[in-house]
Amino acid sequence: MSPYEKLLLQNKSWVKDRLDLDPDYFKKLAKIQNPDFLWIGCSDSRVPANQITGTEPGEVFVHRNIANVVVLTDLNMLSVLSYAVEQLKVKHVVVCGHYGCGGVKAAISRGDFGLLNKWLTNIKDVYRLHADEINKIEDEQQKEDRLIELNVIEQVRNLKKTNIIQKAWKKDQLPTLHGWVYGLKDGILKDLCKILPGDDIDPIFSFKDV
Ligand code: CO
Question: 20-198, superfamily in CATH?
């Protein structure tokens, strides 16, 4: 059996397990999507949003990219954010990074990764912004870990720069923004930051008519 055939077979047994527990499982799920959470995470295969948070299909709206960055010219991310916030009215947006992130490692390695270089510039910008703090750390591993944390915090801050979040805060007092980091070695999610609706926005990023 090819590896991909195994996935299709596993799907069949998953469907069976679900239906054994609740014969209407898929009927119910197909009717409505009403998640409370938008997850912006890394594409890394070891950080699947649902499994690590113990959530079920229907509970988390998900966007993933390399190194969980919120790039304000990324139409894909902005479309997901817009739909999640304006239509689904999620209560929480979580940016989740993870220690050992290959994207962050690649950025600080200064290697030439072709097309990926442009994407990794976003992480290098976070480094530049926090160079004083990061350069004080002597241990290379701790340096990388701290950059991973600061990257999450900066991406949460980037969310505040969107008119999507600013409008939703004014209109619905939603969503709360969260920054988390996941440990590949222990499976633990660490809470790094939380920003409540109405939080201060740097004036230059604050739309005056929103
Ligand atoms: Co990663």
Answer: Carbonic anhydrase (3.40.1050.10)
